[in-house]
Amino acid sequence: MSSNNVAVVEIAQIAGKFTSSIVLQADNKYIDVKSILGLFTTLVSHKDYELHVHGPDAEEAKVAMAEVFAKHGLQIAVITE
């Protein structure tokens, strides 16, 4: 398993713990972070990501997602509306 695969699985697993909607924006594509398939097709081909989190546990989700992305060396900007 490549390190990217490990990142995808871990990101999706952590996202799945939250009830909030967690959406990754890469260019003009929006991917549900809980979708392993969506992440596989996106994390490989892009460098700059924005993360949009909405829901009852959004604050906790933002922190957890920022940590797991950073752990795998992926740059994301967590968007706070």
UniProtKB/TrEMBL annotation:
The protein's superkingdom reads Bacteria
Sorted alphabetically, which keywords does the UniProt record give?
A: Sugar transport, Transport
Record bears the keyword rRNA-binding:
no
Give the matching Gene3D superfamilies: HPr-like (3.30.1340.10)
Domain HPr stretches: 10-70
What is the recorded name of this protein?
PTS sugar transporter
The organism of origin for this protein: Paenibacillus crassostreae
In the record, what lineage is assigned to the organism producing the protein?
A: Bacteria, Bacillati, Bacillota, Bacilli, Bacillales
